[in-house]
Design a protein that fits this description.
alpha/beta; 17 helices; disordered N terminus; NAD(P)-bd_dom_sf; Polysaccharide biosynthesis protein CapD-like domain-containing protein; Polysaccharide_Synthase-Rel; Polysac_CapD-like
Length: 489
């Protein structure tokens, strides 16, 4: 006897499509926006389900566009696929849609720019779903839709994640994040929390920033919670006591001074916080399983006080790797869009003030990534890195700062001018990700390079004259970066 065909899946799809057509044909009163989705993958399915069944939805989906020819004349959650991007303008006119929703959560920035340009040319509103790295703990829904940001236009990177490897070193562990109130540190805390550490300790010298990151994790939390630790890296005895009493097993060292022009003027402060502060944490971390030093692309062939100080911390971390049982490594990445005090913040403030936007040079370029994507890769890098390495996050192609300014001006309510002011002391026209002699090798992840770092003995930095003449101090820092590896092996 021939077995009966299981038609439950087909019936469910038919029922869903029928309900959609019936719902679509209802009077449009109260429906704020007829929308056309671009993208017919998983994010679109979740979003369409939310649009169709969430009673708070303000959107009526009238069709889907997708560049994959295999999806032509199919349906996504009962909504028809009506063509590819070339049909966008015609489909908007035919369906009466006034809004285009970009529903590809793992797309590159170039695709976001292309579809936005088509929507703008057709006179449609343009909304986006967040990148996957922003959706930490839920499927995309109508409440996640938002206006496009400059981070979408410049910084989206598709990231492959080995969740098992990450969970293996975070789940059930006591984790300490220094600089937890900063842009990188706070995002580290939010993403680490996903992996159920036994304890998440958040250390910073800024009490207001500590409270902010704590409330972002738990709106009912209080500052009496032992998870928050108010301390300065410059207090060596306090740092040792914290490690002795709290016994962290995994450390993410994100605390640092980072503003290049200020550190050029005050190099002694870079020594006290970036170098001696890192030394204090490294010396206290005698029993940790994994130590991750957050570095920067400015440490590759450094030419500034910031770059010198961060290269020295990479080398100090490599020295610890050679003398400790745990895994000690550094992670190096470039500019982070949306971080506090970034070029994004400065341009936003200048636009709000009516301009002009100030750019140092028309050809200056930088590597960019969003905070969520950078931290996502930091956590992944820590899972695969070996002791004594610097893991270099690949951030796509460098972007002209002037292009960042122009993209932000396009999103501004009124046009503003761009004024070029000239490169500042210690500033490069373009950053590099690798220093002299470093090779781009990616044995474990397509977006993470692993390069060995020559160690630098702790004793080499103890007697730096932080309060000496700035020029002499900068010369000393440069010399420590240039010391041959064999001198401190």
């Amino acid at each position: 006897m021939r077995p009966r065909k299981d038609t439950r899946g087909e019936n469910l799809l038919y029922l869903l499509a029928t309900r959609y057509e019936r719902w679509r044909s209802r009077p449009a009163r109260g429906l704020k926006e007829r929308v056309l989705l671009f993208g017919g993958g998983g994010a679109a399915r979740d979003l369409l389900h939310s649009m169709l069944f969430d009673p708070r939805s303000r959107y009526l989906p009238v069709g889907v566009l997708d560049d994959d020819p295999r999806k032509r004349r199919t349906r996504v959650s009962g909504v028809p696929v009506l063509g590819d991007r070339t049909a966008l303008a015609a489909t908007l006119a035919r369906t009466g849609a006034t809004t285009v929703v970009f529903a590809v959560s793992n797309a590159g920035a170039a695709l976001v720019r292309d579809i936005r340009a088509l929507a703008d040319a057709a006179g449609a509103r343009f909304l986006v779903v967040p990148a996957m790295s922003e959706l930490l703990d839920h499927e995309v829904g109508v409440r996640d839709l938002r206006e496009v940001r400059v981070t979408d236009l410049l910084g989206r990177v598709q990231i492959e994640t080995d969740l098992d490897a990450i969970a293996g070193y975070l789940t059930g562990k006591r984790v300490l994040v220094t600089g937890a109130g900063g842009s990188i540190g706070s995002e580290l805390c939010r993403q680490i929390q996903r992996f159920s550490p036994a304890e998440l300790m958040m250390l910073d010298r800024d009490e207001s920033a500590l409270q902010a990151v704590q409330l972002s994790l738990d709106p009912r939390a209080t500052l009496s919670d032992p998870a928050v630790i108010l301390a300065s890296l410059r207090d060596v005895d306090r740092i040792r006591a914290i490690f002795r009493e709290r016994r962290p097993e995994v450390v993410f060292h994100a605390a640092a001074l980072k503003h290049l022009p200020l550190l050029e003027r005050y190099p002694g402060e870079a020594v006290k916080t970036n170098i001696w502060g890192t030394l204090a944490v490294l010396e206290a971390a005698t029993e940790v399983e994994r130590f991750v030093n957050i570095s920067t692309d400015k440490a590759a062939d450094p030419a500034s006080v910031l770059g010198y100080s961060k290269r020295i911390t990479e080398r100090l971390t490599a020295h610890a790797a050679a003398h400790r049982e745990g895994t000690f490594l550094s992670v190096r990445f470039g500019n982070v869009l949306g971080s506090r005090g970034s070029v994004f913040d400065r341009f936003s403030a200048q636009i709000a003030d009516g301009g002009p936007i100030t750019v140092t040079h028309p050809e200056v370029t930088r590597y960019f990534m969003t905070i969520q994507e950078a931290v996502h890769l930091v956590i992944q890098a820590a899972a695969i890195g070996r002791g004594g390495e610097a893991l270099v996050l690949q951030m796509g192609s460098p972007v002209r700062i002037a292009d960042v300014a122009r993209q932000m001006i396009e999103l501004a309510p009124a046009p503003v001018d761009i004024v070029y002011t000239g490169l500042r002391p210690g500033e490069k026209l373009g950053e590099v990700l690798f220093g002299a002699g470093e090779e781009d090798r990616r044995p474990h992840h397509p977006l993470i390079s692993q390069v060995p770092v020559p160690p630098l003995d702790f004793a080499a930095v103890r007697n730096l004259a932080a309060n000496a003449d700035p020029a002499a101090l900068v010369s000393s820092l440069a010399s420590l970066c240039a010391v041959p590896a064999l001198s401190f092996s």
